[in-house]
Each structure stands twice: as structure tokens, then as C-alpha cells.
Design a protein that fits this description.
By secondary structure, this protein is of the alpha+beta class. Helices cover 34% and strands 36% of the residues.
């Protein structure tokens, strides 16, 4: 039941178009159940460029469990 707990993660991130292509290919493979063909790769590269997409590679350094307090009070942060 609400309020639901969530995790706050701290770390470093790298955004790049190359990561966007990699993510789009992986998502496509999961959605279709097969690897994205080499023939489709140029089309995905074009989408990345045209739409200004980036992929984000996140390296976690630390994380905290956060529990929202009832009645709109400040959230409680607990070191995990």
C-alpha cells in the first residue's frame, strides 16, 4: 500500500550516441525475441542521430532505501 519505498542510487554516468544504439538494439531484440539484423542497424543509427538519442551507462557507487512518509512529510533515507 502507498507510500511505496524506492531506492536512490548515487554514482557516475556516461551519455553517448553509441550507447543509444546499443540500447535500441537490445530493446529491439527483447521485443521481437530475435537479434536485430545487421540490415536494420543503419536505420537505428539514423534514428539515434535524427532524434538526438543518447544512452546512459550508469555505474552505481552507493544506494539508499527511501521511504516516503505518510501525510506529505519529508522522505526518510536509510543507508542500505
Amino acid at each position: 500500500k502507498p507510500p511505496y519505498p524506492y531506492i536512490m542510487m548515487m554514482g557516475t554516468a556516461e551519455a553517448s550516441e553509441a550507447n543509444a544504439l546499443e540500447v535500441m538494439m537490445k530493446v529491439g531484440a527483447v521485443m521481437t525475441g530475435t537479434q536485430v539484423s545487421d540490415a536494420a542497424k543503419p536505420m537505428l543509427e539514423k534514428r539515434v542521430k535524427d532524434e538526438g538519442r543518447v544512452g546512459i551507462r550508469f555505474t552505481p557507487k552507493d544506494f539508499f532505501k527511501v521511504q516516503q512518509q505518510p501525510g506529505g512529510a519529508s522522505s526518510k533515507v536509510v543507508k542500505s
